[in-house]
Amino acid sequence: MTRFDGKIVLITGGAGAIAGVTARAFAAEGATVVLAGRDAARLTEAAKRVQAEGGRADWVTADVTSADDAARMVATTVERHGGLDVAFNNAGVLGAVGPLADVDPAAWSSLMDANVTGVFLSMKAEIAHMRAHGGGAIVNMASNIGAHRRLPGLGAYAVSKAAVSALSRAAALDHASDGVRVNAISPGPIDTPMSMRPGETAEDRDARMAAQLPIGRVGRTEEIAAAVLWLAAPESAFVLGHDLVADGGASA
Predict the structure, then answer these.
(1) What is the CATH number of domain 8-242?
(2) Buried b (16+ CB within 10 A) or exposed e, 175-190
(3) Residue 225: its pLDDT value, please?
(4) 128 close to 87: Cβ distance less than 8 angstroms
(5) What's the pLDDT score for residue 1?
(6) Domain extents for the chain?
(7) pLDDT in tens for each of the 252 residues of the chain?
(8) 212 phi and psi, to 5 degrees?
(9) DSSP readout, the chain?
(10) Which of 30, 84, 96, 29 is nearest to 60 (CA)?
(11) Rounded Cα–Cα distance for residues 40 and 60 (Å)
């Protein structure tokens, strides 16, 4: 027996690097994983990678900034697989970069839609099912840039991710009595394209981060996946409303 035998796990932003590694980790521990996102071709490939390792995976197209899509995403997951036990709301973007006074209002709105409203709408649909079917666990993707740390030129992004942290805590308080456990994870720089500056190579990024991070390196996607699984697993049953920072000491 493993921690997620027979569990149904929904992951938004399902075609991304962290989502893919986390999906394979859940599947390796017995879960059926449903990957959600906007790009059917990329979702198909991500699901195939899980299946190639012997895991069970499915996918559904959805734009989580749409209330109808978020509701359909959960309904489709339940219809195909019989339930929903865990959700990892991972969808998000890095946008509206620049000094706050220079950020275009349309870019601001787009960023907030993707990073905040998308999490709210996803949770709204997920919790509606979970509280009617014995509870569940939700992990939301925040960032160490937000409630824990700020950087010049990333003010809008910091606001959006600080909102995810606050949203997670609020949902945890509102729905603990429903048996729904809500937490957040706040990674620092991870070995994904998002951690590289324009024109920067992975080697350049690694050298820059070695000088900036107390741990001396960027994080690995597997390390974030392990933290997500712990937050969703039975051994963390007493943990809710927590924002787990995994950033190599950057915000210590």
Answers:
(1) 3.40.50.720
(2) beeeebbbbbbbbbbb
(3) 98
(4) no
(5) 60
(6) 8-242
(7) 689 999 999 999 999 999 999 999 999 999 999 999 999 999 999 999 999 999 999 999 999 999 999 999 999 999 999 999 999 999 999 999 999 999 999 999 999 999 999 999 999 999 999 999 999 999 999 999 999 999 999 999 999 999 999 999 999 999 999 999 999 999 999 988 878 888 888 888 888 888 889 999 999 999 999 999 999 999 999 999 999 999 999 999
(8) -100, -35
(9) --TTTT-EEEEESTTSHHHHHHHHHHHHTT-EEEEEES-HHHHHHHHHHHHHTT-EEEEEE--TTSHHHHHHHHHHHHHHHS---EEEE--------S-GGG--HHHHHHHHIIIIIHHHHHHHHHHHHHHHTT-EEEEEE--SBTTTB--TT-HHHHHHHHHHHHHHHHHHHHHGGGTEEEEEEEE-SBSSGGGSPTT--HHHHHHHHHHHSTTSSPBPHHHHHHHHHHHHSGGGTT--S-EEEESTTTT-
(10) 84
(11) 8
Q: What is the amino acid identity at position 122?
A: S
Active site residues: 157
Q: How many residues in total does the chain contain?
A: 252
What is the pLDDT at residue 181? 98
Kindly give, in sequence order, each residue whose CB lies less than 8 Å from that of residue 221, ignoring residues fewer than 6 positions away.
17, 18, 20, 21, 22, 190, 191, 192
In the numeric block, which tokens belong to residue 196? 């590289």
Residue with tokens 């449903």: 34
**Please, are residues 52 and 3 in contact by the beta-carbon 8 Å criterion?**
no
Q: What is the pLDDT of residue 198?
A: 86
Structure tokens that stand for 251 in this block: 């915000």
Helices 40-52 and 17-28, axial angle in degrees (round to 10):
30
Distances (CA, A) of 4 to 28, 52, 85, 237: 9, 19, 9, 14
